Amino acid sequence: MTKEESPPIPSWGVPMNERLPVPVRITAVTAETPSVRTFTFDRDFSFIPGQFVMVWIPGVDEVPMALSSASSITVQRVGEATSALFSLQEGDVIGIRGPFGNGFPEAHRVLAIAGGVGAAPLLPVIRSGGVKKCLLGARSAEELLFPRILESFTQLAVSTDDGTCGHRGFVVDLLISEDLSQYDSIFCCGPERMMKAVLDLLVREGCPERGYFSLHRYMKCGIGVCGSCAIDPEGLRVCRDGPVFRGDILQRSEFGDYSRDASGRRRPV
Ligand code: FES
């Protein structure tokens, strides 16, 4: 059999870039807050705002991260993998699989609500226009993520837990005084307790279907195969069916109550 007659190599129905990390070189590391850094790399990925990539840190782990631009991830140091990422410098190489997931839908007159590092996946949405206002929350003034950039693209209201900037309290407090009829959609990303408080408010206002929430769950494969990211009770896979879900879908799920760890055990949110 000649080379031309060789049977094609089976692809198993999945493009190779879903299975194999693409090596990228870090070109810049930017400290955004004391606990958050942006890692920019030497390759642009075509993506929908809200999609995520699987980031392979050689010798350590592979973890899901939202893209904060076509060529960057913005990461909070929270565990072993992110601590290893924080030890990397300009010139180091990491692996990227993806982008994966659905991302935020196209919408106009959007109210964006971001808590902590949750501003990262919302940044490209806000940069692309269509976001009428952003509510940004953090523990303190120094932990507010991207406030200068955000206010250059949209109206910005800020809250901090300790009152060092803007409203003293939680970002959901700011939402209470918003006239929701001014917005077609509400995009939300941040700690799950915060997002649950936002969903509860939308339910009380009778419009959970206008809310879109970006979920974070433990992920192994990122491509819908392993089931590690499935949420109860319908088994929706956060990596494939999400990570962005409409509020009325989350309303009847585990969202806000518990998630699962690497062994599948429930842990309270
Ligand atoms: S991470 Fe494997 S199914 Fe979602």
What is this structure, in a nutshell?
This protein has 269 residues and is α/β, with parallel strands linked by helices. The chain has helices spanning 80-86, 119-127, 147-153, 171-176, 192-204, 247-250, and strands at 22-33, 36-41, 52-57, 61-69, 72-76, 93-100, 110-115, 131-138, 155-160, 167-168, 185-189, 211-214, 230-231, 236-237, 244-246, 258-260, 266-268.
List the helices and strands and how they pair.
Elements lengths: L21 E12 L2 E6 L10 E6 L3 E9 L2 E5 L3 H7 L6 E8 L9 E6 L3 H9 L3 E8 L8 H7 L1 E6 L6 E2 L2 H6 L8 E5 L2 H13 L6 E4 L15 E2 L4 E2 L6 E3 H4 L7 E3 L5 E3 L1
Bound molecules: FE2/S2 (inorganic) cluster (FES).
Describe what you observe in this structure.
- This protein is an alpha/beta fold and 269 residues long.
- It has a domain of 81 residues: Translation factors (Elongation Factor Tu (Ef-tu), domain 3).
- It has six helices and 17 strands.
- Helix 3 links the parallel strand 8 and strand 9.
- It is globular and about 50 Å long.
- It starts with 21 loop residues before the first strand and ends with a strand.
- FE2/S2 (inorganic) cluster binds next to loops.
CATH fold node name of the domain at 20-100: Elongation Factor Tu (Ef-tu), domain 3
The CATH class of the domain at 20-100? Mainly Beta
Order of helices and strands: EEEEEHEEHEHEEHEHEEEEHEE
Number of strands: 17
Percent helix range: 10-25%
Radius of gyration: 19 Å
Structural class: alpha/beta
Percent of sequence in beta strands? 25-35%
Rounded mean pLDDT score: 92
Q: What is the terminal-to-terminal distance?
A: 59 Å
